Each structure stands twice: as structure tokens, then as C-alpha cells.
Automatic annotation (TrEMBL):
Single GO cellular component term: focal adhesion
Domain PH positions: 378-474
SMART domains noted in UniProt: B41, PH
UniProt keyword annotations, A-Z: Cell adhesion, Cell junction, Cell projection
Subcellular location as annotated: Cell junction; Cell projection
InterPro entries: Band_41_domain (IPR019749), FERM_2 (IPR035963), FERM_central (IPR019748), FERM_CS (IPR019747), Kindlin/fermitin (IPR037843), Kindlin_2_N (IPR040790), PH-like_dom_sf (IPR011993), PH_domain (IPR001849)
Domain of life: Eukaryota
Primary localization: other
GO function terms (MF aspect): integrin binding
Similarity comment: family membership: Belongs to the kindlin family.
Name of the protein in question: FERM1 protein
Any Pfam family matching the protein: Kindlin_2_N
């Protein structure tokens, strides 16, 4: 019975369940509280009533019905809206989580379940020694992939024991803050820039991460590939709709794990979400470079991204070289030649330029006369119900446009046609062995995309024109400082493809102990016999055999970036006014509307032309306005519209980064750009 004085004081009983490990102590407690009692007071009352002497500093109140944390301890129960029917749970904020990394290794570590995902990923990356955590996020595995895994586990006779790397004793993961991130330009190198091995004991002196050298090598080195049988058991998307399912599970970066239904010891995927790899440096980024390489490798093996047979063999040669030669031998430690360091750094600068991350070193070059290209090329226009028409013309490339004339002499007059390439899609159409060097241009017009092919005579001509087209599509001219590195990058990729150039004899397949089926996707294992594959991979291997381990990984990443589909994340959407579903491809610099049946691009919109974007949360519709009064609106059918909204805002946020920032991130700006006003 309650005394009349207590009854009149507007107090009421609040049920709180305590998550503790002491079996002899009760877990449910009734507290008598009033609405003006603050959350900190509730926790104090509760701890006094529990009578267990332990550290309660990591505990907080979780409101089960509302799926939210009560972290503002100065707020009163009334202000939080907590009443007598509320079920509160007093539990730890840091809990164990299993993370599947891009290299398919699983790590188990303590993560904050009360911080927003953006902050939780930042803490995870400190533990794993991965810089630029803003490029990564957490992903729930797609249902199709889980079904395939369950089927595989059901069919396997032996119980599957997963090899898990346990990092649960790390200082960051146990809720204590590690030393401040020493990620400045004066930072002491913690990796050998060629082999990727930890540089003596500096990893434990200067790095934020609790990784031992042994654990670091698990994350920074590639390990033997899985068997072809295991590869066949893994989920492989067959259609654009399947690829769209892969991107449906990204967690909301502005909410906590607990708020999104993640439970203790659940498994999530840690992946690079944004394909703008900024400031890659082999001296600090061995783990990061390896994990990017691994994400690229698995995307190619599982055919999440399409590539030609010639490209697949290059990827196989680079992989086979890693696994069979450098990662498993001490040779990786023996590269100390200074010239090779320069080559690695050159490869890195090329990478940055590719991703629009490189700053112009020679600004004067950008404000002088804009150079132009003029050459004989062949024009191919696809014709419906007839053969393609292939004709030679005199082409002139100036600013961001291509004009073509009947011949060189008539170039002073009016062109037959002038093609403006700003905002177009540029797709390589190359077969080095067959001496085919084509450039496919998809140029936006009022009712879709105009398809035009340019045919070049040789590698050098192709590299110059291809680089000019790529820059023009982004609204840049050949005066831009990234033009020459782009030409060099294209030529180096063509050289890797052209393995007939090397006079070296193909080494004996037996000398490299490899199963070729481990290095190519299933499509090619079905097409060729094992010996045929091995011979072709070894032919391709001649052009990469002199590379150091880190350079080979960087070349692999660079080749991945050269694929037409690189960096595209797909979603099934319904555009306003349309009666059928389409696929929306989200990239680091543009959105592409794609025909779901044929896979052909319909329209491209560049972020550089975007004025604003927002979400109507009631009807879950994303609306975007571009220059020249162009506006689009769509609802997302394969995922929550918040995911696409966050993707767009995230890419715009990442474009604001500069090396002068000394790696301090404006987290508030990220949430403003990605959070929306839900």
C-alpha cells in the first residue's frame, strides 16, 4: 500500500530491466519516480538499488518501445516522454560485433551500439588501422546471399567453423579513447611502402591501432584464394536487379546500431561504400590498400562488376602473382630499390587523379590556351536493322566538344556535326590482341542517349582521345592538370593487356603452384580447361612480374577503376510519371538512369550540375533539381529512399575533402548533407 503523502506527490512506478551477469541478483527493478526526475537521477537510483559493486560507466538506458537511447542525462523523464508504461533496459553501450571485412576475414570486436554508425565506423577503423573511415560503412548481408550460405551449410557434411580474429581487448573497442590519431603529414611511416609489412616496431609506437604485427599481417596481406568449389557456393548476382539487392542493406549513418535492430554478436559486412579513395599512401595504408584490393578482387570474381576476357586475365595475373609469389614468400621484403618507390608513388598520384582527388601542381597550365587534338579517326554509328556505318573523318577536339569534317582541308569551314561531351558516358571498346581501339560515347539528348563510336588507329592515339573524352564528360578540358596523368594511366593499362610485347618466354606453369580456376570468375572456368587458363594467365603475367607487392595491388585497383561499371551502386526505382521500373546507378560524380531490361543507359545527371535535393518522407520520394530547369523525382523500390539520399550527400561531402584539413572531419556537415529532415 502507498501512503497518501506519496500518492499525492505525482510519483509513479517505472520498470527497468538490468543487463548484468550476476545470476543470483534479480534483473527487474521497480523505481518510484516523478516526471521531473532527470535520466541521470534514474540511473543513480537504479545503481543504488542493484547493490552490485562494479563499473557502471558504460551502461545507459535503452527505451525498448521507442527504439532509442536515453543518453541526455540532464533531460527529465517528462521531456523524454517517458511514462509508467515505458519498458527501459539498463545495458552496456559497447557490445561485441562480428565484422566480415572485404578480404572475407571475420573480426570480432567491441563496438559502440549507442553512437551513430558514422562514429562507430570511425572507431572500428582506428582499431583496424584503416585511415579515411568516411569511405567505409556497415552493410547487412542481402537475403539471397544468406539463403545461399544457409543452403551451403545445410549441404556440408562437416560443421563449418569460421576462423575469427578476436580483437575484443583493444583499447578503443572497450570504450576507452585511444591516443589521438597521428595522421598528419609528419606522421612516422608505419609500413614499408613496397612490401606493406609493418616497419619494425613503429606500428605499436605510433599507430592508434591495438593490432599486433601478426594480426596486422592478416589484414594487410592477401591470403591463398578459396577453392573453385567454394567460389561456386558463393552468391553471384546475375542481373541488374540482383546487383541492386546487394546495396539494399547499408545502415543509416545517422542512427545507432541498436536503433537499426542490430543485436550483440550479429555479423555485418564492413565495406568501402564510397568509391573515392583519397590520399592513398603505402607508408601508412597497407591495411587500407589491401582491403580495397580485396573488395575489388571479390567484386570481379563474383561478377558484381563486368569485365572483358582480356581484363579478367590481367586481374588473374596480378592476383596469381600476389598469392603465389609475394604474399607467401620473403621476396616481399627484398624490394628496396629507390626507383621502385618512385614508381609506387607515381601509381598513387595516378590513382588520385583518376578519382578527382589530385590537386593541380601547376596552376598556370590551367589558364593558358586550351590545347586541341586533331586527327583522322573513324566514326561508327549503330543503325537499326542494318550493318554499322563506318566512315573516316577529320576530327577536332577542343574545349569539351568533338567536331568532325569530311577531310583535313575542310576543317576551316563548318563541321558536319559538333558533339558536346559534357555529361556524356565514356566507355572503352578495346581488344588489344585484335588491335581494336574504340571509344563508345553515349551523349545525352532530349529523349535519351545518342550512341556514337570513335575508332582509333593505335594505343597512343586512343590514350590521348580517350583521356580527352573522360575529362570532357566531367566538364574539364585538356588544359586541366589531370590530362597527362590520365593519358599515362590509360597507356599503362593497355601495356598490361598487351602481353605479346614481352620477349620473355612464358614460365613453366608448374613453377607457379596455382589453380587458375581460383583467379577467374566461374564464367571462364566453364569456358576453358585448366591448362588453357594457366597458360593464358602466365602469358598475361609477363607484364606484371617485375612489380613490388604494393604496386601490383595498386595496379589492380587502377585497372578496376578503369572498368566502365566501376563505382556504380544500383537501385531499382520508379521515376515520377513513368509506368515501369528503372535502375538508378549512383556513382561518385553522377546518377545514371538505366533500362532494367537491356542495361543500356538512358540519361545521365552530374552532381556538378545539381542545385538541390531533398526527400518527401511521407511518400518516400527523392526529388533533385539540376541546372537549366531540369528536375527529377523517384521512389526507391529495392531499398529505403534514405539510402540513396545518403549516398548522394555522402559523395558531395567527400568532394569537400582536402589534404590541408589534416584529416579532421566535419561530422556535422556530413549529417547535414546525408541526414535529411525525416
Amino acid at each position: 500500500m502507498i501512503s497518501s503523502s506519496e500518492y499525492g506527490s505525482h510519483s509513479w512506478e517505472l520498470l527497468v530491466t538490468v543487463d548484468h551477469q550476476h545470476e543470483e541478483v534479480q534483473k527487474e527493478f521497480l523505481l518510484r519516480v516523478t516526471g521531473d526526475l532527470h535520466i541521470g537521477g534514474v540511473m543513480l537510483k537504479l545503481v543504488e538499488q542493484i547493490k552490485i559493486s562494479q563499473d557502471w560507466s558504460d551502461y545507459a538506458l535503452w527505451w525498448e518501445q521507442k527504439k532509442c537511447w536515453l543518453l541526455k542525462t540532464h533531460w527529465t523523464l517528462d521531456k523524454c516522454g517517458v511514462q509508467a508504461d515505458a519498458k527501459l533496459f539498463f545495458t552496456t553501450q559497447h557490445k561485441m560485433l562480428r565484422l566480415r571485412l572485404p578480404n572475407m576475414k571475420t573480426v570480432r570486436l567491441k563496438v559502440s551500439f549507442s553512437s551513430v554508425v558514422f562514429k562507430a565506423v570511425s572507431d572500428i577503423c582506428k582499431i583496424l588501422n584503416i585511415r579515411r573511415s568516411e569511405e567505409l560503412s556497415l552493410l547487412k548481408q542481402s537475403e539471397d546471399a544468406l539463403k545461399k550460405k544457409k543452403k551451403k551449410d545445410k549441404n556440408s557434411k562437416e560443421p563449418v567453423t569460421e576462423d575469427i580474429l578476436n580483437l575484443c581487448n583493444s583499447p578503443v573497442s572497450s570504450g576507452l579513447s585511444g591516443s589521438p590519431g597521428l595522421y598528419s603529414k609528419t606522421m612516422t611511416p608505419i609500413y614499408d611502402p613496397l612490401s606493406g609489412t609493418p616497419a619494425s616496431s613503429t606500428i605499436t609506437w605510433f599507430s592508434d591501432s591495438p593490432l599486433t604485427e601478426q594480426n596486422c599481417s592478416i589484414l594487410a596481406f592477401s591470403h591463398p584464394n578459396c577453392s573453385p568449389e567454394a567460389l561456386a557456393e558463393m552468391y553471384q548476382p546475375r542481373t541488374l536487379a540482383d546487383k541492386a539487392k546487394l546495396n539494399a542493406g547499408w545502415l543509416d549513418s545517422s542512427r545507432s546500431l541498436m536503433e537499426q535492430g542490430v543485436l550483440e554478436d550479429d555479423q555485418l559486412l564492413l565495406r568501402f561504400k564510397y568509391y573515392t579513395f583519397f590520399d592513398l599512401n603505402p607508408k601508412y595504408d597497407a591495411v587500407r590498400i589491401n582491403q580495397i584490393y580485396e573488395q575489388a578482387r571479390w567484386a570481379i570474381l563474383l561478377e558484381e562488376i563486368d569485365c572483358t576476357e582480356e581484363e579478367m586475365l590481367i586481374f588473374a595475373a596480378l592476383q596469381a602473382y600476389h598469392v603465389s609469389k609475394l604474399s607467401l614468400s620473403s621476396e616481399a621484403q627484398d624490394f628496396t630499390c629507390e626507383s621502385e618507390v618512385d614508381e609506387v608513388e607515381a601509381a598513387l598520384s595516378n590513382l588520385e587523379v583518376t578519382l578527382e582527388g589530385g590537386n593541380a601542381s601547376n596552376i598556370l597550365e590551367d589558364i593558358t590556351d586550351i590545347p586541341k587534338l586533331a586527327d583522322n579517326l573513324r566514326l561508327v554509328r549503330p543503325r537499326k536493322l542494318s550493318l554499322k556505318a563506318i566512315k573516316p573523318y577529320w576530327f577536332v577536339f577542343k574545349d569539351t566538344s568533338v567536331s568532325y569534317f569530311k577531310n583535313k582541308e575542310s576543317a576551316q569551314g563548318e563541321p558536319i556535326e559538333k558533339l558536346n561531351l559534357k555529361g556524356c558516358e565514356v566507355v572503352p571498346d578495346v581488344n588489344v590482341a585484335a588491335k581494336k581501339f574504340g571509344i563508345k560515347l553515349l551523349i545525352p539528348v532530349a529523349d535519351g542517349m545518342n550512341e556514337v563510336y570513335l575508332r582509333c588507329e593505335n594505343e597512343n592515339q586512343y590514350a590521348r582521345w580517350m583521356a580527352a573524352c573522360i575529362l570532357a564528360s566531367k566538364g574539364k578540358t585538356m588544359a586541366d592538370s589531370s590530362y597527362h596523368p590520365e593519358v599515362h594511366k590509360i597507356l599503362s593499362f593497355l601495356k598490361m593487356k598487351n602481353w605479346t610485347m614481352s620477349p620473355q618466354a612464358v614460365s613453366d606453369p608448374e613453377s607457379i603452384d596455382m589453380k587458375p580456376e581460383c583467379f577467374v570468375s566461374l564464367r571462364y572456368t566453364k569456358k576453358y580447361k585448366s591448362k588453357q587458363l594457366a597458360a593464358r594467365i602466365l602469358e598475361a603475367h609477363q607484364n606484371v612480374s617485375q612489380m613490388s607487392l604494393v604496386e601490383a595491388k595498386l595496379r589492380f585497383i587502377q585497372a578496376w577503376q578503369s572498368l566502365p561499371e566501376f563505382g556504380l551502386s544500383y537501385y531499382i526505382v520508379r521515376f515520377k510519371g513513368s509506368k515501369k521500373d528503372d535502375v538508378l546507378g549512383v556513382s561518385y560524380n553522377r546518377l545514371i538512369r538505366i533500362d532494367i531490361a537491356t542495361g543500356d543507359p538512358i540519361t545521365t545527371w552530374r552532381f556538378s550540375n545539381m542545385k538541390q535535393w531533398n526527400v518527401n518522407w511521407e511518400i518516400r520520394q527523392v526529388a533533385i533539381e539540376f541546372d537549366q530547369n531540369v528536375s527529377i523525382a523517384f521512389t526507391c523500390l529495392s531499398a529505403d529512399c534514405k539510402i540513396i539520399h545518403e549516398y548522394i550527400g555522402g559523395y558531395i561531402f567527400l568532394s569537400t575533402r582536402s589534404k590541408d584539413q589534416n584529416e579532421t572531419l566535419d561530422e556535422d556537415l556530413f549529417h547535414k548533407l546525408t541526414g535529411g529532415q525525416e
